[in-house]
Each structure stands twice: as structure tokens, then as C-alpha cells.
């Protein structure tokens, strides 16, 4: 599993405690954090609470900074998994869908109608 940062809500007066427990300070984001493989990860999250707003900002900044890299890796992924992505599944309702279209397919009239009729068919 990849290691990621967990941001914490550490109050100013608790900063020395937090530091001694192995958390680190991000001066750009002005927030304490630890890595997800930290030994006391769960305890620290319980103690200080996770700072989700900073996490959102950090993720957003990362996406903006790495826009091209992300687009490129998506492209590579799609290219690599083209067959899998485009693989067609036969649905029991008689319809055909691709994996990415499954959510849409199960809302189609044909599928819904089939599912509604199902209990009757089985009895
Ligand atoms: Zn279906």
C-alpha cells in the first residue's frame, strides 16, 4: 500500500507533544502531519483528529502541480488496459455493457424492467 500523509488538528499548545510523538510540521500547509505507516497512526488520529481541509488543499495542489503527469499516467493506464476497459459484459437482462457503463446500464429501462420481473420469473 502506498504511504500517504495524514494531516492532524494539533493545537498550538500541543505542538511539542505532537512533535515528540513523531509528527512532522509542513511549513507550506502550516499543519502537522504523519505518514500513514506511522506506528501510532490510529492513536494520533484519535487524539488530534484528522485535518481534512488541509488534506483537500494538499490533494488539490498536487493535482494542479502534476496535471500533465496525471493525464499522462491516465493515458498510459487506459492504453495498457484498453481491452479490459472496452470488454463487453453480457447482462442477464439481455443487454451488453462495458465495465465503466455498468452504473448507467443498471438504471436503463430494459435492465430495471428485467429486475422487476425477476421474482415472478423465478416463482
Ligand atoms: Zn442488465
Condensed summary:
The protein has helices at about 15-20, 40-50, 50-65, 65-80, 80-85, 100-105, 110-120, and strands at about 5-10, 25, 30-35, 90, 95-100. The protein has about 120 residues and is α+β, with helices and mostly antiparallel strands.
Description:
This protein is an alpha+beta fold. The protein folds into two domains: 5-57; 87-122, no CATH class. It contains seven helices and five strands; from the N terminus they run βαββααααββαα. It has helices at 15-20, 41-48, 52-65, 67-80, 82-86, 102-105, 109-122, and strands spanning 5-8, 24-26, 31-35, 88-90, 96-98. Strand 4 and strand 5 form a beta hairpin. The radius of gyration is 23 Å and the shape is elongated. The chain binds zinc ion. The site of zinc ion (ZN) has 5 residues, from loops.
Tag the structure with descriptive keywords.
single chain, 123 residues, alpha+beta, 2 domains, two-stranded antiparallel ribbon, binds zinc ion
Compile the SSE list and pairings.
Blueprint: E1 5-8, H1 15-20, E2 24-26, E3 31-35, H2 41-48, H3 52-65, H4 67-80, H5 82-86, E4 88-90, E5 96-98, H6 102-105, H7 109-122
Zinc ion binds next to loops.
Q: How do the helices and strands follow one another from N- to C-terminus?
A: EHEEHHHHEEHH
List each distinct ligand once.
Answer: zinc ion
- Count the DSSP helices: 7
Question: Alpha-carbon distance between the termini?
Answer: 46 Å
Number of domains: 2
Could you tell me the number of beta strands? Answer: 5
Main sheet record: 3 strands, antiparallel
Strand content: 5-15%
Query: What's the alpha carbon Rg, rounded to whole Å?
Result: 23 Å
Q: How do the strands of the widest beta sheet line up side by side?
A: 1-3-2
The helicity comes to 40-55%
Q: Low-confidence stretches at least 5 residues in length (pLDDT < 50)?
A: none
The overall pLDDT average reads 92
Shape: elongated
Query: What structural category characterises the helix and strand content?
Result: alpha+beta
